[in-house]
Design a protein that fits this description.
Blueprint: E1 2-3, E2 15-16, H1 17-53, H2 57-69, H3 75-94, H4 99-105
Antiparallel strand pairs: 1-2
Helix pairs in contact: 1-4, 2-3
InterPro entries: SapB_1, SapB_2, Saposin-like, SaposinB_dom, Sphingo_Act-Surfact_Prot
Keywords: Disulfide bond, Glycoprotein, Signal
Organism: Entomortierella chlamydospora
Length: 111
């Protein structure tokens, strides 16, 4: 199958369907990576704010676990991330590492 439309003109006059799927996958992955990075930075920022008033690591982690239960379709995945990265993130917050650095360390943002 070949496509020949104006929207694909930067890629040549004929683009194979497989190439188009690959291109769309790369673009979607890049967009999702940006969204994941932004969400991580927002979450870490929220955690920093919360920890200013509640210093307990356990209380903060418990709150995160409750928040995960409220997220439709991703609650279990969220809980897994809290289990895997929660202590590390909280420890980094306590050493005054910035939100973007924390998200880079745990792999959600690129350098």
């Amino acid at each position: 199958m070949r496509f020949s439309t104006n929207i694909l003109s930067p890629f040549g006059s004929k683009v194979r369907a497989g190439h188009l799927v690959l291109l769309l996958t790369v673009v979607a992955t890049s967009v999702m990576a940006d969204v994941s990075c932004t969400m991580c930075e927002m979450t870490v920022g929220w955690l920093k704010h919360r920890m200013e008033s509640h210093k307990s690591k356990e209380a903060t982690k418990a709150t995160l676990e409750k928040v995960c239960k409220l997220i439709p379709n991703y609650g279990e995945e969220c809980a897994d991330y809290v289990e895997e990265y929660g202590d590390q993130v909280i420890n980094l917050i306590n050493t005054n590492v910035s939100s973007d650095e924390i998200c880079t360390i745990i792999g959600y943002c690129d350098i």
